[in-house]
Amino acid sequence: MKIWKIYLSGEIHSDWREQIEAGAKAADLPVEFAGPVTHHEASDDCGVAILGEEPNKFWHDHKGAQLNAIRTRTLISEADVVVVRFGEKYKQWNAAFDAGYAAALNKPTIVMHGPDHQHALKEVDAAALAVAVTSEEVVQLLTYVIKGELAGYTN
Predict the structure, then answer these.
(1) Whole-number pLDDT of residue 155
(2) Which of 17, 26, 103, 121 minimizes the number of CB atoms within 10 Å of its CB?
(3) What's the burial of 2, exposed, middle or buried (CB within 10 Å: 0-12/13-18/19+)?
(4) CATH assignment of 4-36+79-147?
(5) Mean pLDDT of all residues in 32-36
């Protein structure tokens, strides 16, 4: 049986990843999840912590972004499906970049966001194969795609 690799990209300030992982487990989906480093400070400071301090904030951020890109690019390129969540609290430019990178690699992408972001994310939504609002919808999408099962329908 195929084990599907699902990359969970996007906002790090809510428990949406845990909700999807719990839902996938409850649905007995054959999946492995991966994602970015979600410890905000570690993600921001990894470059200078490993490669040395930078007095200029641009280069501080640049070092961290490059190290994080090694992880992100590798895991997105290995993913079967990429889920990108845009949260309400902050603008996730990195999530938009991940969605674009996944699209460039022709990776099936599910985008998650609320109705307030519909206009701002119209191009991202147009490139995605599905746009969901909730973690539960993502689990239902994955269940259908992976198992071919749709709640309320029997084969």
Answers:
(1) 67
(2) 26
(3) exposed
(4) 3.40.50.450
(5) 97
